[in-house]
Design goal:
single chain; 323 residues; alpha/beta; Rossmann fold; seven-stranded mixed β-sheet; six-stranded mixed β-sheet; 10 helices; 13 strands; 40% helix; 21% strand; elongated; disordered N terminus
Length: 323
């Protein structure tokens, strides 16, 4: 996949990135290796795990240690983890995953005060964030593929999650596209973490009661895999095969659902490459010091359907594993 680097000239980078490590930092406890602290949204989620693997791969190649804190979707825990990494553990860099930057004021302030650069997976640019990945692109890929496949009439249930910034921007892309389709009736239900699979099942079951089989073209869109997996469970319980299901991330369970025909299509997100980009951005920013210009890494998604999954798996043989 071709990766695009887009300078974010509007950002002001704090002028003290060089020398982010110090003698009393976390690196000194691990044989003087520098350390990055990773603030995960949900570390057990397949895409989160892929991003963390990408971070660890580049970290290992460059002699860095990695510490991971799982927030389980709690922004207060994310801020607390960033403060801990900046003060108690004194890491050399911080990677924060899928939280809105404007909700991380406490964590970012702590990082800036400690002169620690922050890289963000899907978060918006902000003071102190030296590199981020695009959060909207895969949402656009997904809804465009949905509309090409589904058509311009019928009813669609959107299973959204506005707390996580990746899902937030995917949701914006989804909503913007559906607003241009007056022939499609849109209903959105907000899932929560934990409970995203169960909520997907619950909301789908209620929606199906209002949309009987044969009434019109029907589809369900999940802002990531797990609510869509929950929707599939509800469809199976109801004995319904007339509803198309769309998702994003492309974890092993979703890819298997595409393979067996219970999910219509999924947009696979290359989280491992994004994690590699984030880690490399942190390393490069520290090396460049004051000359660094913050960057956005844009890694496109891959639309996977039952017709294309065999070719996709041939190209990405590790995509069905949880490693």
């Amino acid at each position: 996949m071709k990766r695009l680097l887009v300078p974010l000239s509007a950002l002001a980078l704090v002028a003290t990135l060089a020398g982010c490590g110090s003698a009393d930092s976390a690196s000194s406890a691990e044989g003087d290796k520098p350390t990055i602290g990773v603030v995960a949204l949900v570390a057990t989620d397949a895409l989160n795990a892929a991003v963390i693997k990408g971070v660890k791969d580049v970290a290992s190649e460059n002699g860095w240690n990695v510490i991971v804190t799982d927030t389980n979707g709690d922004v207060n825990k994310a801020n607390a983890a960033m403060v801990t990494f900046s003060t108690t553990q004194k890491t050399d860099a911080i990677a924060v995953m899928a939280f809105q930057s404007n909700a991380l004021n406490q964590g970012l302030q702590a990082a800036r005060s400690a002169k620690i650069p922050v890289v963000s997976w899907g978060g918006e640019p902000a003071d102190g964030i030296v590199a981020t990945t695009s959060a909207r692109k895969v949402g656009e890929d997904s809804v465009n593929a949905l509309l090409d496949d589904f058509g311009d009439t019928g009813a669609v249930l959107g299973l959204t999650y506005h707390t996580g910034v990746l899902c937030l921007y995917r949701g914006y892309a989804f909503e913007d596209a559906l607003k241009k389709e007056p022939g499609i009736e849109l209903k959105e239900d907000e899932v929560k973490i934990p409970g995203q699979v169960e909520d997907g099942t619950k909301y789908t079951a209620g929606w199906l009661a209002d949309h009987p089989e044969g009434s019109e073209p029907l589809a369900i869109w999940g802002s990531w895999d797990e609510p869509a997996i929950g929707a599939i469970a509800a469809l199976k319980q109801a004995g319904r095969t007339d509803v198309k299901v769309y998702g994003i991330n492309g974890g092993p369970q979703a890819l298997q659902a595409v393979k067996d025909g219970t999910m219509t299509q999924v947009v696979w997100q290359d989280g491992e490459t994004e994690g590699q980009d984030m880690m490399q951005g942190a390393i490069d920013a520290i090396a460049a010091g004051d000359s660094w210009e913050p960057k956005t890494y844009d890694v496109p998604g891959v639309v996977v359907t039952q017709d294309t999954i065999d070719d996709f798996l041939a190209d990405h043989p590790d995509a069905m594993s949880n490693k």
